[in-house]
Design brief:
Keywords: Membrane, Transmembrane, Transmembrane helix. By secondary structure, this protein is mainly α. It has two helices and no strands. The chain is flat and about 45 Å long.
């Protein structure tokens, strides 16, 4: 499997994912949005804590 076909496959998969994501966004699935928000908040707080420890 060469690199070009791999890039094309990954590009197609990401396009499908984005399409599904926007369809999800249009129907406004609140639980989905909540999971994304909470996940992002936890990730950001963990990153901030690790960054602070590295600064010391």
């Amino acid at each position: 499997m060469n690199l070009e076909s791999f890039n094309e496959t990954s590009h197609n998969l990401s396009t499908v994912f984005i399409f599904l994501f926007y369809r999800k966004l249009n129907t406004i699935d609140y639980s989905f949005m909540l999971i994304i928000t909470i996940g992002g908040w936890i990730f950001a707080s963990m990153w901030a804590v690790s960054y602070r420890f590295e600064q010391k």
